[in-house]
Amino acid sequence: MSVRVARAVRAWGWDASCCRGASNFRVPPPGAVDVAELLRDATVTEEGPRAAAARRLPSQSSVLLFPGQGSQVVGMGRGLLRYPRVRELYAAARRVLGYDLLELSLHGPREALDRTAHCQPAVFVASLAAIEKLHHLQPAVIENCVAAAGFSVGEFAALVFAGAMEFSEGSAVSPAELL
What we know:
This protein is mainly alpha-helical. It folds into two domains: 3-26 and 36-54, no CATH class; 62-178, Malonyl-Coenzyme A Acyl Carrier Protein, domain 2, CATH 3.40.366.10. It contains nine helices and two strands; from the N terminus they run ααβαααααβαα. A two-stranded parallel sheet has the order 1-2. It is elongated, with a radius of gyration of 29 Å. 22% of the residues are buried. The mean pLDDT is 79. One of its GO terms (molecular function) is transferase activity. This is Malonyl-CoA-acyl carrier protein transacylase.
């Protein structure tokens, strides 16, 4: 090692064990507290019972994934109209959007439904309508939901489902805001 390097090492506080700023004490001073031991004890006593109670079996958990743009098809939502609140969702969408989304979803034309400005609200409302059906057929899936996600407009459906966004906010999102 050159003299210049040796001086730099000393100037930076490296000792013989190559640990910068290491203590010269080989053993802890009298009365020192072992911090690692305290942290281990605190973790075991505080988190032990809570962690066990919060853990769910995978068979008792569900995750909902919401579709995005491209999953639209003329006729979507037809089988969901018999469930409560589905017609209310479409009526609310009509008020927010200013056109009859239910009519467009059920009867097309396909070219109009495929336009981004129409397909995103259509997929959004149909996704939430499907949640209504799921709520009636398998309520435990909704109750045991631990996560909800989606891509593009599906993300907004997941946020509305989770209660992080109002329906009117999600249905009024413009395509430019999704980019």
